[in-house]
Amino acid sequence: MTQRFSRRQFLRATLVSVVSAGLSACKGDGDGTTDSDGSTGTDGTEPTGSTAPTTGAEEPLLDGAAYFPQSVASGDPRPDSVILWTRVDDAAAGDGDLELTVELATDPEFTTRVELDAASATIPARVMFDRCAKAKVKGLEPATVYYYRFVHNREDGRYASQVGRTRTAPAPDADVAVRFAYASCQDYNGRYYNSYRGLLAQPDLDFFVHLGDYVYETTGDPTFQAAGRGIAFSDTAGAIVFNEGSESEYFAASSLSNYRELYRGYRSDPALRRVHESLPMIAVWDDHEFSDDCFGATATYFDGRVDERDEDRRKHANQAWFEYMPVDFGDDAFVYDPSKPHPQDITIYRDFRFGKHLHLVMTDLRSYRPDHLIPEDGFPGAVVLDEAALVEQLGSIPEFATPYVEDIDAYQGGIYKDALAAAADGLGFDPALVTGKIDAGFINSTLASVEDPTPPIDEAELATLPRGLSFLGLGKRSFNGSIGARYFVVKPAFDAWAAARAAAQPTSVDVMGQAQREWFLSTMKGSTATWKVWGTEITLMPLVIDLTAFPIEPFNQLYYMNVDQWDGFGPARDALLGELAAVDNVVAITGDIHAFYAGTPMVAGAPEQKIVELVGAGISSTPFQSLLVLQVAADPTLSSLPGAGMLASAIDALFTGTTTNPHLGFADSSRNGFVSVVVDGAELNATFHMLSEDVSLTDYEGMDDALAGKFKREKFQVKAGQRDLWRDFSGTFKRWDPTTNMWV
């Protein structure tokens, strides 16, 4: 039988029930790129035959799965609408555009069809958008499960895609519990999506959230990606090559073809396809959809050796994301236009309401952020805050301040300038950087490293010099590198540097950008939902390690582990948390760090101003602990330190075994997995579903029973009206107490 809309619903559905969600051409037809178009990710046998559409609307449907190699997906569910997605691949169509028909039902057998306007139910699959097709179906009932499929009409028959299942959001006034899961970081290279198999086993999920790193732009980076299955670019000339000609050669995506092939390849995974066929997704991007540790349109592969800003590459990444992700951009007429400058080409921050109890607010923390506060090519000896600046900011000279010479050009007749300049070529830095205020410790250590005969500045002289903060004092010991710039940064010194930069140039710590920040705070403060859940890519909680008790001079200090996270933008974080302190029931769900953490991020110096944060590990990507071990082994300075590898392996004990991170109640940096959440009017309950890393290196396709027993689970709870985190200990919930660093 056929379910018909009421006259009012039908008219509304006729007008906007199936709307092409931006995949029509911008201006004219044709492919807007000359990139090659590979076939990575296609599975099944390619059918043969011609592509002229048939008029036999009642002809039986044939199995067309091979024409839809990435299957189907849905996303951005609202009470009356949802986005439906597919991609059609038919070699017989040549370079021509195709048209698909979308069909909707309330049962998987399509015996109860939802009638759609025939004209609007025909949607384009254009070559210029890689024959991806999207439909925004409006006029739907809230909190309702629908089934959908796409039909490819050919002369030899009507070929149906796989059947997808989706679900609309409950009405804003519905007093119902909402169940969802969230995921992030799903490296495909040498790893398998067994975490998704566990997610599919969760009962009655309404949707799932993806917090970014849906694809990884590199095809086998040996510093963190495993050998095994992977993506091969057809357009290697358009990609960035590393280790060229060696056994460890690999590529990073750059052309539009490269980025498209990533999505095709990742969607070839059967577990990921089944998740998309079963649940609507709400997604934002993080860095790897474009480039590791990126900011705006700038990459960081070469640590300042070259200018890595590449707006064309950024827009290639954005266009592929637009094409392959089932996203509702708010404006039904929106179409991606690569002629627009970044970041005006696309806006992905948005929010969703699910009944009375859940308001999900998704942000974009990559498009508008500034550069990292310590440049990768920062000259270690350069003084960034002199004595006068430190005293003005802090009231006195801090312990981390070190002696410096006021003018290296004139100091001691220029002998130290000449000696450093002579060493520049061998050490790989520009001698022109040896000017102005230079850290005295840097002078002595550099000349000692090249066995220069110039006498070092002695202790008596050092005691007479002014004291300030240099890049060396921030932890930067190399001339071009991420250690001391994005990772492993001295905390007290960095806090002072970040505060100074924020005071001098507020945009230098503004991760969101003004427009998004104002929208975010207005949305959170204006929400009437019980729970305001912030979906954000990067970790809010500080991740600090205390090495002051370890005999590894000069590394026996407090360190931020990763200032590509919010730790790199502390003043902006404090400002946001201070604003959110006025909003009840705020919980942040985050990813990116490849670890499970739970705690209560708080304003520095004001622990009562806090929210709850639940960090989910990667679906498959190398866990944070393993990344640290690899990073230590690869870095000449860190690998030379006694016990550094052991400390990396014990990172969770360093995080939680001291009072350094009073906000952090739980840490497991060694696993993959996902998080499931249930919210209602009284509680938010979250479960960490955790797999050991070795499980992600094995394909468990068809072995669900064997996989089920490998998940370890931790349960957490937040009570409405409170700002505390509770953890389940064998049926008894205990509260995390930051003042005692204990569960009580």
TrEMBL record:
Residues 33-51 have a biased composition (Low complexity). InterPro entries: Metallo-depent_PP-like (IPR029052), PhoD-like_MPP (IPR018946), PhoD-like_sf (IPR038607), PhoD_N (IPR032093), Phospholipid_Metab_Enz (IPR052900), TAT_signal (IPR006311). Residues 26-59 are annotated as: Disordered. Residues 71-168 form the Phospholipase D N-terminal domain. Pfam families: PhoD, PhoD_N. PROSITE patterns: PROKAR_LIPOPROTEIN, TAT. CDD domains: MPP_PhoD. Residues 180-372, 476-687 form the PhoD-like phosphatase metallophosphatase domain. This is Alkaline phosphatase D. The lineage of its organism: Bacteria, Pseudomonadati, Myxococcota, Polyangia, Nannocystales.
